From TrEMBL:
Subunit structure as annotated in this protein's UniProt entry: Part of the signal recognition particle protein translocation system, which is composed of SRP and FtsY. Archaeal SRP consists of a 7S RNA molecule of 300 nucleotides and two protein subunits: SRP54 and SRP19.
PANTHER family on file: SIGNAL RECOGNITION PARTICLE 54K PROTEIN SRP54, SIGNAL RECOGNITION PARTICLE SUBUNIT SRP54
Domain AAA+ ATPase: from-to ranges: 96-280
Domain SRP54-type proteins GTP-binding per the UniProt entry, residue ranges: 97-290
The keyword RNA-binding is annotated on this UniProt entry: yes
Protein name, per record: Signal recognition particle 54 kDa protein
Pfam families (UniProt xref): SRP54 (PF00448), SRP54_N (PF02881), SRP_SPB (PF02978)
Catalytic activity, reaction form: GTP + H2O = GDP + phosphate + H(+)
InterPro entries, per database record: AAA+_ATPase (IPR003593), P-loop_NTPase (IPR027417), Signal_recog_part_SRP54_M_sf (IPR036891), Signal_recog_particl_SRP54_hlx (IPR013822), Signal_recog_particle_SRP54_M (IPR004125), SRP/SRP_N (IPR036225), SRP54 (IPR022941), SRP54_GTPase_dom (IPR000897)
Principal location: cytoplasm
Subcellular location: Cytoplasm
Length: 465
């Protein structure tokens, strides 16, 4: 899909930040370089690339990662927010009577998009009509009529009339029973004066509620000039990016959005009238970065910032007294991102510290780090409710979380099983008084300190991770 390169190379760079809770300039420069490289490859205009990457760099160096947030999540949230800010929300398209004018170069996909949008509006219960004013390209009328019948919507054109403005006027009158009028216009190979004059005349006649610039995803560096000219001529309220089902990157359309201070309305993903998607920034950017549901992650980091340093608020004794949630597990995993984490956590829990840490096998942490990384990615795609109450997670949620995180369902199940095991172990400790706790620790140490007893070792399987 769009900007796929950004997803894979950026993911690699961000994963290298996995164990860090603080960012140095070198880390940030590496992430920014990756973003610049990928956006340029995706045909985003260079000035826009520099503007975006400067802001990411500034924020990553100036802003404090909130407690309990890894450097990777912190940078990811910044990249996500800046990308969403760049593409903006989808163009407002109220489900009510309106007239929409489509403009764009020859072959950009206007006629196809007119039929796709008409089909989309008809599925929303509205009565759309397409008005075909292209008198320039032979065959335009027949193609438009054919596509309108495939979309099963009203159509108006006049193959015997060579005045597009008159066709537009007559078309509005002839389809007055429709509530959404989509006016398709002629394209040209380039931004000729004739094209601009014609589109200005049609615009003045139909006085549309919305003007959408239709752009082929492959447009590349030419997007800026094209967007500027149509913006000057009629003003652009939104962009439709077509042919995203091909290899094209679509970055040029991001330039057009920036240049016209507009937004993206639809994505064209094939030649049939059903191959159309309403633009949605969260899904678009999350898919783009290949990082599961980033909106969840961004909101979680946001909450960590609002509630202060969660790490300071979190008292490991909490897990001995109440419900043990996946958030507690995440805290422990974040603590593990620092130095010798479980040791610290154990030291924080009365009676659980002492000689146990010397019993942990050396490679335990390494095995745990790998599994922790994938557990983190899984948790990034879980809702607050699921994190608070993992026992409520059923088969459907497991499927959704696996899809959103890009992890196998088995990994999601493994996380839930590890949580249940850890919770069971902790319940054994909860009923104990300090004296009992001490006696238990002596017994465990007496048995060669077999790891954490019910908490298991740190190796694969059987342990809390
Ligand atoms: N694969 C793919 N092809 C598309 C898409 N949108 C349009 N096309 C194809 O691109 C070609 C041009 O589409 P049109 O809708 O005729 O483009 P136009 O802007 O109306 O062209 P003019 O009428 O000459 O100005 C056609 O072969 C369409 O089938 C898309 O999203 N994906």
């Amino acid at each position: 899909m769009v900007l796929d390169d950004l997803g894979s190379s950026l993911r690699g760079t961000l994963d290298r930040l996995q164990g860090k809770t603080r960012l140095d300039e070198e880390d940030v420069e590496e992430v920014v370089r990756e973003i610049q490289r990928s956006l340029i490859q995706a045909d985003v205009e260079i000035d826009l690339v520099m503007e975006l990457s400067d802001e990411i760099e500034r924020r990553a160096l100036e802003e404090e990662p909130p407690g309990g947030t890894t450097a990777r999540d912190f940078v990811l949230r910044i990249v996500y927010e800046e990308m969403v800010d760049l593409v903006g929300d989808s163009t407002e398209l109220p489900l009510e009577s309106q007239t929409i004018l489509l403009a764009g170069l020859q072959g950009s996909g206007k006629t196809t998009t007119a039929a796709k949008m008409a089909w989309w509006f008809s599925k929303k219960g509205l009565r759309p009509a397409i008005i075909q004013t292209d008198t320039f390209r032979p065959g335009a009328y027949d193609q438009a009529e054919e596509m309108a019948s495939r979309a099963e919507v009203s159509f108006y054109g006049d193959p015997d009339n060579d005045d597009p403005v008159e066709i537009a006027r007559e078309g509005l009158a002839a389809t007055e029973e429709a509530d959404v009028h989509i006016v398709d216009t002629a394209g040209r190979h380039a931004l000729e004066e004739g094209l601009i004059d014609e589109i200005e005349a049609i615009d003045a006649t139909v006085d549309p509620d919305r003007r959408l610039l239709v752009m082929d995803a492959a447009i590349g560096q030419g997007a800026k000039d094209q967007a500027q000219r149509f913006e000057e001529a009629i003003g652009v309220d939104g962009v439709v990016i077509t042919k995203l089902d091909g290899t094209a990157k679509g970055g040029g359309a991001l330039t057009a959005v920036n240049e016209t201070d507009s937004s993206i309305a639809f994505l064209g993903t094939g030649e049939t009238v059903q191959d159309v998607e309403r633009f949605e920034p969260n899904g678009f950017i999350s898919r783009l970065l290949g990082m599961g549901d980033l909106k969840q992650l961004a909101e979680r980091v946001e909450r960590a910032m609002e509630t202060g340093d969660e790490e300071e608020d979190w008292d490991p004794e909490d897990i001995m007294s109440g419900q043990f949630t996946l958030k507690d597990m995440r805290h422990q995993m974040n603590a593990m991102n620092k130095m010798g984490p479980l040791d610290q956590v154990l030291d924080m829990i009365p009676g659980l510290g002492g000689g146990i840490k010397d019993q942990l096998p050396d490679d335990a942490m390494d095995v745990t780090q790998d599994r922790m990384r994938s557990f983190e990615v899984v948790m990034d795609s879980m809702t607050e409710k699921e994190l608070e109450n993992p026992r409520s997670v059923g088969a459907n949620q497991v499927r959704r979380v696996a899809r959103g995180s890009g992890q196998p369902e088995e990994r999601v199940q493994e996380l839930l099983e590890q949580h249940r095991m850890m919770e069971r172990t902790l319940k054994q400790f909860q009923g104990m008084g300090d004296a009992d706790m001490q006696r238990m620790m002596k017994r465990m140490e007496g048995e060669g300190g077999g790891g954490m007893g019910g908490m298991g070792g740190m190796g694969g399987g059987g342990g809390p991770f």
